[in-house]
Amino acid sequence: MPKIIAFHSFRRSTGKSSLAANTAVICAQQGMRVGLVDLNLESPSLAYTFQLEGQSIPYRINDFLWQNCTIDQAAYDITKHLETIWHTNISGRLTLVPANTQYSDNSHTLKDAYDIKTLNEGLLDLSLAIQPDLLILDTHAGINDDAVFALAVSDVLLILLRPDRQDYQGTAVIVDIARGLEVPQVGLIVNDVPNRFDPADVQREVEAGFGCNVAAVIPFSTDMVGMEHPRVLALEDPQHPIINTLREMISPYISL
Amino acid sequence: MSKIISIHSFRGGTGKSNTTANLATLAAMQGLRVGIVDTDIQSPGIHVLFGLETDDIGNSLNDYLWGKCTIKEAAHDVTSRVSPGIPGKIYLIPSSIKAGEIARVIHEGYDAGLLNEGFSDLLEELKLDLLLIDTHPGINEETLLSLAISDILLVIMRPDKQDFQGTSVTVDVALKLGVPSLMMLVNKIPLQLDLNNLKQEIERTFNAEVVAMIPHCDELMSLASEDIFAVRYPDHAVTAELKKVIQKMLA
Ligand SMILES: Nc1ncnc2c1ncn2[C@@H]1O[C@H](COP(=O)(O)OP(=O)(O)O)[C@@H](O)[C@H]1O
Ligand SMILES: [Mg+2]
């Protein structure tokens, strides 16, 4: 199996999907073959982030989970597409397994809990089919079966939180679960840090509070906000400070 | 006349819990008796704004849903935690923050009918003027039921494309359910946007009244849910905007 990195958070809207998407791009830009799987069936966003709506996407992970297709039928090599839209070169490869963005279908998927075994086999088959160096999973926030599964199979778990008291309590619960599951490496990413806070203080405080490594502290910024689509800074502006931070953050986890 | 008000958004992180806690506080400052139920069972949080630590939570909404206590026994009087000398009352029915209990409720689901019964018990037994429901984002069966019994639905959205799309689903559902009064609150508005244009666009799109336009607020963000904004910043423009919302709700 390739190395599996999961992005998770206790609360929603912590920036999980956007950081997972940018990290996947950063790794592909470094020549890696990256698989990115949208496991956030409650509010999937990766196909949208990468501007795939106009493309033909006959199958998604939902179809695989409902056994309407094989996992490789739901996997799309989007490298060329990204190169075209963002006028850039990517030396590696990015394969996306999108989830369904049809709001009406979501309730169906969520209610009839699928078989966790199916997903496990799916990740294995996906690895055989696309031979990735790295699989990145974007999970469904909170404590739920899908997320616990993603945590259980991951080699590296990156837990997003905002410097907000509401996030702290829940994140402590997630860190406990990760310890129980013996996830080999766990890092916290503190996102949306108000600019008046000192990142070093935040890092110290969070590390002391959770007894857990802080992988990155990212200041609040509206630079990822776009009019139509969220802006993928790793493609648009690879030298942006946030992207440099992410690049630094991920390097120890992906080096052999 | 007591009122049930659901605070909903299609996506998470829009500001539901902060808004709910502030509206409850402003109403209690006017002498009203207010209840809050945290039905965001998957990622509860509003108790944090009232300074409740994990160990301060005795009975929770989960216990009520599992028949372990009455809903009144899960009500925590948090009035004095907000600020001394508030003439009204604030009762919070928190959701459990224990991993096992969260997982159990997600797994087994719960009887939404029981939840609705709990709401009417609360109104009656605590003699509430207002019952605010901090909902789970998105549309699911349980949410539908609490929307269906609400006198007012306050929909919170951020002005981005994904929220526009998702919110239109919520608004459609609310119209079908015949919610008597639908109000929209736009939160976290980027500072460079023109408020008037945006307001008109949203009212046109959803055919509903926008009751407040709240910009991204550094003070609120830096407060980090440690306190109630309206108490800490009584004269701030955001507090003034929230007061207008309470007036509209009470009208
Ligand atoms: N107007 C605003 N400006 C800046 N930050 C805000 C604003 N409203 C809410 N927040 C922040 O957004 C985060 C999510 O708010 P919360 O009330 O918990 O939302 P929800 O209950 O919808 O998940 C909190 O960290 C809060 O401090
Ligand atoms: Mg909330």
Describe the SSE topology.
The complex is a heterodimer of chains A (256) and B (251).
Chain A (H helix, E strand, L loop, with lengths): L2 E7 L6 H14 L3 E6 L7 H4 L11 H5 L10 E2 L1 H8 L6 E5 L5 H9 L4 H15 L3 E5 L6 H9 L2 E6 L3 H16 L4 E9 L5 H12 L3 E6 L13 H4 L4 H14 L2
Parallel strand pairs in A: 1-5, 1-6, 2-4, 2-5, 6-7, 7-8
Antiparallel strand pairs in A: 3-4
Helix pairs in contact in A: 1-11
Chain B lengths: L2 E6 L7 H14 L3 E6 L7 H4 L11 H5 L10 E2 L1 H4 L6 E5 L5 H10 L3 H14 L4 E5 L6 H8 L3 E6 L3 H17 L3 E9 L5 H12 L2 E7 L2 H6 L5 H4 L4 H14 L1
Parallel strand pairs in B: 1-5, 1-6, 2-4, 2-5, 6-7, 7-8
Antiparallel strand pairs in B: 3-4
Helix pairs in contact in B: 1-12, 6-7
The complex binds adenosine-5'-diphosphate and magnesium ion (MG).
Adenosine-5'-diphosphate sits at the interface of chains B and A.
Summarize, please.
The complex is a heterodimer of chains A (256) and B (251). Chain A is of the alpha/beta class and 256 residues long. Chain A contains eleven helices and eight strands.
Task: Characterise the protein shown here.
The complex is a heterodimer of chains A (256) and B (251). By secondary structure, chain A is of the alpha/beta class. Chain A has a single domain, classed as P-loop containing nucleotide triphosphate hydrolases (Rossmann fold, 3-Layer(aba) Sandwich). Chain A has 11 helices and 8 strands. Chain A has an 8-stranded mixed β-sheet, with helices on both faces. In chain A, strand 6 (156-161), helix 8 (165-180) and strand 7 (185-193) form a beta-alpha-beta unit. In chain A, helix 1 (16-29) crosses helix 11. Chain A is globular, with a radius of gyration of 17 Å. The model of chain A is unreliable at 102-111 (pLDDT under 50). The termini of chain B are close together. Chain B has an 8-stranded mixed β-sheet, sandwiched between helices. The model of chain B has no long low-confidence stretch (mean pLDDT 94). In chain B, helix 1 packs across helix 12 and helix 6 (112-125) runs parallel beside helix 7 (141-148). The A-B interface holds A 10-14, 42-43, 45, 48, 103, 106-107, 110, 141-145, 148, 163-166, 169-170, 173, 176-177, 192, 194-197, 220, 222, 225, 227-229 and B 11-14, 17, 42-46, 48-49, 53-54, 97-99, 102-103, 106-107, 137-141, 160-162, 165-166, 169, 190, 216, 218, 221-222, 224-226. Adenosine-5'-diphosphate sits between chains B (9, 12-18, 45, 187-188, 214, 216-217, 220-221, 225) and A (162, 164, 166).
